[in-house]
């Protein structure tokens, strides 16, 4: 029998997910196992405007003030949640929010690197002071980084080198889309030479077919190709120098048995929402609560925060969101199902339009 006291949260979101799957994939999972976790996105404000950004990061985007961020965080901490507070980019007027991350025992930040190259002498001491040990950089291959982000790739490379030199554990967020799928091997080689510790493969999702980046969404065949690369990387002696991790949205590893596959067989693969073994929630900067960031939008809203006469509170909404995903049973990722549904509908529409025009 698994001991509930053995559950270890290391302050990283991916660390929580991996630890949770190690429990959910066990045949001896205790009936009273239940974790509570919420990601709170506190600001859309950014110093860049990337074409792929599902969070609508914008230089004009608004963020919470410190008092609100601190109060809402305390609200969920008090109710037993592990809180993962995030801002879109760590601009100087959000540096006080690092105190909130410290209170939550959250040990990582994500950045595009712009700020680090110009303000690292001020920023790094604050990170150390607030127990931030991990920095995650979102970076694309040489072939498309500048086009997608509108930024010079050399700047983020410099920020990565500065962070490594100062002793931070560095992870590279690699967004897998059609134009980045086949550059995975060369990117990994570059990352190893840089000396980074981990590559986190992010599943590119876009639920708006009108978005000019929608044509970058992975097809089922592309997913199969990703897994071939994954298998190749994990079986290479050269790549043992670096850790690889991935979003659950890629589905199950077709080559190996692991905790994820075991959890799927028990219908415990999708973590989203409030259910028997987990509260796994996502809050957007507007204060709306969803099952996860890939399953958001009005029809999936399950809660919200509100100002109750000067005091922040939250409530859940009676919304059986699972019924809106045909065939959902937690054996696969809800976000992946939603993305696939829209992709297939779009392909059908394209074929219909093509047929009509002939």
TrEMBL record:
Single GO MF annotation: iron-sulfur cluster binding
The UniProt record lists the keyword Metal-binding: yes
Lineage: Bacteria, Pseudomonadati, Bacteroidota, Bacteroidia, Bacteroidales
Cofactors, names only: [4Fe-4S] cluster
SUPFAM superfamilies referenced in this protein's UniProt entry, alphabetically: Radical SAM enzymes (SSF102114)
Keywords on record: Iron, Iron-sulfur, Metal-binding, S-adenosyl-L-methionine
Protein name: Radical SAM core domain-containing protein
């Amino acid at each position: 029998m698994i001991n509930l006291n053995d559950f270890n949260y290391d302050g990283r979101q991916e660390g929580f997910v991996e630890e949770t799957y190690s429990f959910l994939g066990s045949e001896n999972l205790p009936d009273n196992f239940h974790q509570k976790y919420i990601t709170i996105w506190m600001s859309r404000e950014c110093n860049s405007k990337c074409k792929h950004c599902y969070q609508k990061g914008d230089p004009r985007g608004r963020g919470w003030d410190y008092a609100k961020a601190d109060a809402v965080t305390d609200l969920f901490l008090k109710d037993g949640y592990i809180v993962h507070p995030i801002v879109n980019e760590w601009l100087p007027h959000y540096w006080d929010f690092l105190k909130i991350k410290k209170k939550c025992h959250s040990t990582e930040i994500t950045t595009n690197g712009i700020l680090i190259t110009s303000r690292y002498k001020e920023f790094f001491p604050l990170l150390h002071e607030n127990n931030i040990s991990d920095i995650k950089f979102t970076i694309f291959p040489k072939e498309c980084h500048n086009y997608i982000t509108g930024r010079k790739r050399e700047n983020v490379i410099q920020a990565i080198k500065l962070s490594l030199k100062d002793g931070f554990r560095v992870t590279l967020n690699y967004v897998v889309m059609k134009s980045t799928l086949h550059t995975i091997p060369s990117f990994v080689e570059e990352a190893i030479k840089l000396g980074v510790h981990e590559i986190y493969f992010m599943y590119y999702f876009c639920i708006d077919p009108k978005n000019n980046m929608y044509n970058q969404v992975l097809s089922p065949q592309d997913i199969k190709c990703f897994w071939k690369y994954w298998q190749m990387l994990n079986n290479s002696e050269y790549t043992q120098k670096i850790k690889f991790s991935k979003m659950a949205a890629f589905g199950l590893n077709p080559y190996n048995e692991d905790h994820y596959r075991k959890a799927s067989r028990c219908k415990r693969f999708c973590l989203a929402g409030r259910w028997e073994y987990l509260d796994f929630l996502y809050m957007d900067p507007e204060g709306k609560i969803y099952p996860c960031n890939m399953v958001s939008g009005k029809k999936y809203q399950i809660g919200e925060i509100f100002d109750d006469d000067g005091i922040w509170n939250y409530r859940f909404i009676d919304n059986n969101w699972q019924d809106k995903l045909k065939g959902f049973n937690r054996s696969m990722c809800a976000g992946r199902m939603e993305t696939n549904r829209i992709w297939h509908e779009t392909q059908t529409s394209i074929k219909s339009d093509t047929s009509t025009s002939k």
